[in-house]
Amino acid sequence: MDLVDLVLTVCLIAQPNVCHDEHLYFERRGGLTQCTFLAPPEIAKWSEQHPKLKVVRWKCVFPDQGKDI
Prior knowledge:
alpha+beta
């Protein structure tokens, strides 16, 4: 199965300088452009489930070929 990786850079709301990346993997439906159109509702859903974190940046990438997921 081909996947696309939606990478969210998130920071603690209480400590905005404490940030890390979260990875959401999805079945690829087209290229990265399609991911950018489908990402906003997924980001909103993730944000609702993680109220102490704020998404400050996001991007769509293809996962590393040798990376275990």
